[in-house]
């Protein structure tokens, strides 16, 4: 997690910014800012100290302010923390853009990060990692873009379910044998052969698609 204070200088022309990691931003003083995903779509927002917005990765943001120094805290959330909040889901976890984020839990965590920053980060890396993971869980649960992802579950079927599958296979093979009884194979010998095959068969693995 990267924590920094940014200063947006006043100006007549808007500037563009691209966030490479998802970021939670919190105003450190009251001020107004024009924001938009395109220069032609900019809207003015007034933020009080402690109010927040959420900016996803790789999204252009156009900014302009009339304030002399617009101060805001930027908290970048790492891919590792977001993935851990999704139980290790492969691939990037995308968050939605939220112009004004009102969430008491996230606000309390952001305030804790800012207090730690003001004090000079006395609690060290472990504290920041813990807060980052709590932020990631809150952001993913409330503001993630839901994508379908493919996950592979290894280890095969459970033993009880596997026995049921094999019994169904045995019954189908016996029925097929009876239908073709002219082949002269005894059912008891056939079942013995099936049992030997099943004992040697490896566990079944499946790939499941989860939303």
Identify the notable features of this structure and list them briefly.
four-stranded antiparallel sheet; 11 strands; disordered C terminus; five-stranded antiparallel sheet; 2 domains; 5 helices
Descriptive report:
Helices cover 36% and strands 29% of the residues. It is of the alpha+beta class and 211 residues long. The protein has two domains: 2-147, Jelly Rolls, CATH 2.60.120.10; 151-210, no CATH class. It has a five-stranded antiparallel β-sheet, covered by helices on one side. A four-stranded antiparallel β-sheet has the order 2-7-4-5, with no helix packed on it. A hairpin with a 6-residue loop joins strand 4 (31-36) and strand 5. The model is unreliable at 147-157 and 193-211 (pLDDT under 50).
Rg: 29 Å
CATH architecture of the largest domain: Sandwich
What percent of residues adopt helix (DSSP H or I)? 25-40%
CATH topology of the largest domain: Jelly Rolls
Lateral arrangement of strands in the main beta sheet: 1-8-3-6-9
Residue fraction in strands: 25-35%
What's the rounded overall pLDDT mean?
75
- Segments where pLDDT lies below 50 for 5+ residues? 147-157, 193-211
Short description:
The chain has helices at 79-85, 104-118, 124-143, 159-179, 187-200; strands at residues 2-9, 15-19, 23-27, 31-36, 43-47, 52-55, 59-64, 69-76, 98-101, 149-153, 206-210. With 211 residues, it is an alpha+beta fold.
What is the topological layout?
Elements: E1 2-9, E2 15-19, E3 23-27, E4 31-36, E5 43-47, E6 52-55, E7 59-64, E8 69-76, H1 79-85, E9 98-101, H2 104-118, H3 124-143, E10 149-153, H4 159-179, H5 187-200, E11 206-210
Antiparallel strand pairs: 1-8, 2-7, 3-6, 3-8, 4-5, 4-7, 6-9, 10-11
């Amino acid at each position: 997690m990267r924590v920094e204070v940014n200063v947006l200088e006043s100006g007549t022309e808007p500037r563009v910014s691209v966030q490479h990691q998802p970021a939670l931003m919190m105003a450190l003083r009251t001020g107004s800012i024009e924001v938009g995903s395109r220069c032609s779509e900019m809207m003015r927002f007034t933020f009080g100290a402690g109010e927040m917005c959420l900016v996803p990765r790789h999204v252009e943001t156009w900014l302009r302010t009339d304030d002399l120094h617009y101060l805001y805290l930027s908290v970048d959330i790492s891919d590792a923390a977001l993935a851990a909040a999704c139980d290790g889901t492969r691939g990037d976890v995308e968050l939605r853009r939220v112009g004004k984020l009102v969430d008491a839990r996230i606000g309390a965590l952001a305030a804790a990060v800012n207090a730690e920053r003001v004090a000079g980060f006395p609690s060290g890396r472990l504290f920041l990692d813990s807060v980052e993971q709590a932020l990631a869980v809150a952001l993913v649960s409330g503001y993630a873009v839901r994508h379908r992802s493919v996950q592979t579950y290894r280890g095969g079927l459970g033993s009880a379910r596997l026995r049921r599958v094999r019994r169904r296979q045995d019954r189908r093979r016996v029925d097929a044998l009876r239908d073709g009884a002219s082949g002269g194979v005894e059912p008891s010998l056939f079942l013995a052969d099936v049992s030997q095959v099943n004992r040697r068969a490896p566990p079944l693995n499946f790939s499941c698609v989860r939303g």
